[in-house]
Amino acid sequence: MSAEKINPYKDSELGKKEQVAQMFDNISENYDGLNRVISLGIDVKWRKKVVKIVGKNNPKQILDIATGTGDLALMMASLKPEKIVGLDISAGMLEVGKQKIAKANLSDKIEMIVGDSEEMPFKDNTFDAITVSFGVRNFAHLDKGLTEIARVLKPTGVLVILETSNPTKFPFKQGYKFYTNFILPVIGKLFSKDKVAYSYLSESANSFPFGDAFNNILKKNGFTHTKDTPVTFGVATIYTAYK
Question: Which residues take part in binding S-adenosyl-L-methionine (predicted)?
Fold first, then answer.
């Protein structure tokens, strides 16, 4: 089943976009804590790698799509850009993010906006760098989301995506499958009000194209010089691409 067809709530009348917004609103309050537990804290390391790649471009204007509670946006403030915009479809997640940003005294530097990655309220060629961490697999229409990213990225800009992938080597492949199919949903059910959210997150992770397959999707949608770097045995992958 393709990732675009996988929705959080099987019996909902809503489209994927609305369901994803609803799901993240539901889990926003305990998302950060749960995320650290689920990834064993390794996601922080991955984000640091993303920040390093973005920093090579000395970006002035940065857009963080599917910013959630703003973890990556906050980390990128260390690059001293003029402006960081965090965009997300879930107002609940952004509220948590705004509190974190205010606490870090960065409200004048980081702006959080409720918005749809497939129809962004920005002019063409606006951003020097665009990041998406664990967000592209939630796009309702992947191609549309990527062409929209290409539109608002400057010709000299860089796109950096951090997304889950599936380890291909024994025994990590088998271990990861077991972890995402059995352990993850159980942790999610124990700690989250939303019983299906973490089943959806692991199911969508397992079916999302990665490596060369995702590079080809990027190329098809207006990107070039695509590169994928697997991290932690291939549990996640960092993609870089240019317009």
Answer: 69, 88, 116-117, 133
